[in-house]
Amino acid sequence: MKYRIELKKFETIRELPNSWDNDNYVELLEIMEFGDTATIPSSELKEMCMLSLTDFEPSEAAEIVLKYLFKDNLSSSQIANLSHEMLHEKMWEEYADLSLHEQFFNAGQLLFQAFNGKFPQPEALRFKLELEAAKKEDMSVFKSDFEASIIRLLVAGMPKNTLLNRLFSEQLEGQAFPDAKDIIWQYNRESLGDKSMVIEVISSVYWFHDLKFTVPFEAELTATN
């Protein structure tokens, strides 16, 4: 199955779409015992939440945010340790469990903004791809294995020593790629034709920075993929 891929847009973003909403800010304010949040205008909830976080030491604020996001995923001792590591480590790139990376990014973004740079600044990538298949039936692979297929195609246009190749060589070459859904954080099919589609992808700089200077290229997916 052959495809032509062209990178149409590539940009760095510092906040993910739909990462925080007013309900989240209200819940955090309640955790911090702010008081009556009903009197705060919706347009001021984010600012008030960040101001309230700065009433705490940075590591204490990090613990509040991490406990809010990960209370069902991490133990209290893990959260306590991570709240200190967040001050100097990019956990959205370095934490062992990839399924938590997107939420670590969201935590880092809120803390960075609240504390004016005392935390590392999160950076993600948003890029747009135009993909054209040689045959109509070759588009069927994206119905059931979207993230894995997209990553396999993109890696073909990146340097051989790119991080994805080094860390996931077996998954890239095999049938199962369970980590793919945690490498691609968000995606949107902007258009879909019989043999082509345009998609927008959001992921970590960590995985896809090598895409920046990619020229249009051709790649293949094997039947076993």
Summarize the entry for a quick read:
Helices cover 40% and strands 20% of the residues. By secondary structure, the chain is an alpha+beta fold. It has a five-stranded antiparallel β-sheet.
Strand line-up across the major sheet: 3-4-2-1-5
Radius of gyration: 20 Å
Number of helices: 11
What's the structural domain tally?
2
How many runs of DSSP E, i.e. beta strands?
Answer: 5
Fraction of residues in helices?
25-40%
Shape: elongated
Please give a structural write-up.
A hairpin with a 3-residue loop joins β3 (184-192) and β4 (196-204). The chain has eleven helices and five strands; from the N terminus they run βααααααβααααββαβ. α1 runs parallel beside α2 (45-53), α2 (45-53) crosses α6 (101-114) and α3 (58-70) runs antiparallel to α6. The chain has two domains: 2-13 and 123-220, no CATH class; 22-114, no CATH class. The longest helix has 14 residues, at 101-114. A five-stranded antiparallel sheet has the order 3-4-2-1-5. The chain is of the alpha+beta class and 225 residues long.
